[in-house]
Design brief:
By secondary structure, this protein is an alpha+beta fold. Helices cover 33% and strands 26% of the residues. The chain has helices at residues 16-26, 47-51, 70-82, and strands at 2-7, 32-37, 40-43, 60-66. It has a four-stranded antiparallel beta sheet with strand order 1-4-2-3. The longest helix is centred in the last third of the chain and has 13 residues, at 70-82.
Length: 88
């Protein structure tokens, strides 16, 4: 299992558009990918699951993956957070 903690730095948090980008990225990988915020876990391949995390600006989200391409999956999703989901 591979995991990294990312901080939500875009001002609007993880709303519909960032959720969609996360899902579009996660489904490219064979690994199981989860996002965890305050103990709540979400399937990163399900837009409704990701949106239910309600991750606002300054939230910490653990990106966790398990499978043959887990490192690449975590890194790709972490990069979305770093780029502020291309919003700012």
């Amino acid at each position: 299992m591979t995991e990294k903690t990312a901080k939500v730095i875009n001002s609007l948090g993880i709303h519909a558009r960032p959720s969609s980008l996360i899902v579009q990225t996660a489904i490219k990988f064979k690994s199981s990918v989860q996002l965890v915020k305050d103990g709540a876990s979400a399937d990163a391949k399900s837009i409704m699951s990701v949106m239910m995390l309600a991750a606002a600006q300054d939230s910490n989200v653990v990106i966790r993956a398990e499978g043959e391409d887990e490192v690449e999956a975590v890194d790709a999703i972490f990069k979305l957070f770093e780029l502020k989901f291309n919003e700012e």
